[in-house]
Specification:
This protein has about 100 residues and is mainly α. The protein has helices at about 1-45, 50-104. The radius of gyration is 23 Å and the shape is rod-shaped.
Length: about 100
C-alpha cells in the first residue's frame, strides 16, 4: 500500500508539473502575442513619420517579431518534450499501480 500511495503521489506530482509546464507555455504565448501587438501599435502610431523612418522601424519590428516567434517555437518544443516525458512517466506509474493491485 505504501508503494501504491507513493506512486499515486508521484502521479499527482507529475500531473502538477505537466500543468505548470503548460501554464508557462500559455504565458509565453501570451507574452509573445502582447509583444507583437505592442510592436504593431507602435508602428501604427508612427505613421506620421517619413517613409524611410517608417520602413526602418518596420524592418526592425519584423526582426523582433521573427525573433519572438523563433523563441516561442523553441519554448513550445521544450514544453512539448517535457509534456511527452511526463505523460510517459504517468503511464508507467499507472501501469505500475495496476501491477501492484494485481499482486495484492
Amino acid at each position: 500500500e505504501d508503494d501504491i500511495r507513493s506512486l499515486r503521489e508521484q502521479v499527482v506530482s507529475e500531473r502538477k508539473a505537466k500543468e505548470e509546464a503548460l501554464k508557462k507555455l500559455s504565458k509565453s504565448e501570451a507574452d509573445a502575442e502582447k509583444a507583437i501587438n505592442k510592436a504593431t501599435q507602435k508602428l501604427q502610431s508612427d505613421r506620421r513619420s517619413d517613409s524611410d523612418a517608417l520602413k526602418t522601424k518596420l524592418r526592425s519590428s519584423s526582426h523582433e517579431i521573427e525573433a519572438l516567434k523563433h523563441k516561442l517555437v523553441e519554448r513550445n518544443d521544450k514544453y512539448k518534450a517535457v509534456q511527452t516525458r511526463l505523460e510517459s512517466k504517468l503511464q508507467d506509474a499507472e501501469l505500475e499501480i495496476q501491477n501492484l493491485k494485481h499482486k495484492l
